Amino acid sequence: MTDLTTTILGRIRDVPDYPRPGVVFKDITPLLGDPAAFRAVIDALAEDLDVDKIVGIEARGFILAAPVAYRSGAGFVPVRKKGKLPAEALEASYDLEYGSAVIEVHRDAFAPGDRVLIVDDVLATGGTAQAAVELVSRAGADVVGVSVLMELAFLKGRNRLNGVDVRALVVI
Ligand SMILES: O=P(O)(O)OC[C@H]1O[C@H](OP(=O)(O)OP(=O)(O)O)[C@H](O)[C@@H]1O
Ligand SMILES: Nc1ncnc2[nH]cnc12
């Protein structure tokens, strides 16, 4: 196990039966509150990136994606839950481990052919990431990958992202 893996695994808290009975919620707040661990995660996610834009998915995705954008010299684009973006937006609906939702991105968020990395904290069923990939593509940009802090492999989210380069700092 690498030092980074140990650092991450030691700072993710399992919260049983949140937000619904039967779900084990992976709480990243202990990791975020540890400055060395937070920095190590951002540095790892930003390593060797050559992209124009980083997309962050509301809300926890923002926490990781914005510093990755800053660190890698890319722009930041928010994908938000429906109704939060002020200008004309494209929308996609999806199911996730404990519910369903609609996300949006501004129609003019990207230049044609922008190289885009989508960053989030957790890949679970892959519903959220799949919807984000669809939105970015419909907005005219190229998705070069999806990077997450943590992949919950038993939910097989990777299978929904055929043809997309999916990277996870830890796989649980
Ligand atoms: O792979 P999936 O099954 O789609 O699940 C992963 C998504 O679930 C969580 O977001 P959530 O919708 O709970 O929103 P939050 O970031 O606002 O807490 C997480 O931050 C991912 O975006
Ligand atoms: N079990 C889980 N813990 C944290 N975030 C999630 N998003 C989807 N499933 C999750």
Keywords:
single chain, 172 residues, 5 helices, 28% helix, binds 1-O-pyrophosphono-5-O-phosphono-alpha-D-ribofuranose
Explained architecture:
Residues 35-150 form the Phosphoribosyltransferase domain. GO terms for molecular function: adenine phosphoribosyltransferase activity. The chain is of the alpha/beta class and 172 residues long. The chain has a single domain, classed as Rossmann fold (3-Layer(aba) Sandwich). The protein is 28% helix and 35% strand. The protein contains 5 helices and 9 strands. The protein has helices spanning 3-9, 29-32, 35-46, 60-72, 127-138, and strands at residues 13-16, 24-27, 53-57, 75-81, 89-96, 99-106, 115-123, 142-151, 166-171. The strands form 2 sheets. It has a 7-stranded mixed sheet with strand order 5-6-4-3-7-8-9, with helices on both faces. A two-stranded antiparallel ribbon has the order 1-2. Helix 3 (35-46) packs across helix 4 (60-72). The radius of gyration is 15 Å and the shape is globular. The mean pLDDT is 97.
Question: Would you kindly provide a brief summary of this structure?
Answer:
The protein has 172 residues and is an alpha/beta fold.
The class by helix and strand makeup works out as alpha/beta
Hetero ligands: 1-O-pyrophosphono-5-O-phosphono-alpha-D-ribofuranose, adenine
Number of helices: 5
Secondary structure: helix percent:
25-40%
What is the level-2 CATH architecture name? 3-Layer(aba) Sandwich
> Which spans have pLDDT < 50 for at least 5 consecutive residues?
none
Instruction: Name the overall outline.
Output: globular
Roughly what fraction of the amino acids lie in strands? 35-45%
Radius of gyration: 15 Å
**CATH-defined topology:** Rossmann fold
Structural domain count: 1
Summarize the biggest pleated sheet.
7 strands, mixed
- Read across the widest sheet, the strand sequence of neighbours is 5-6-4-3-7-8-9
Top CATH class: Alpha Beta
- Terminal Cα span: 13 Å
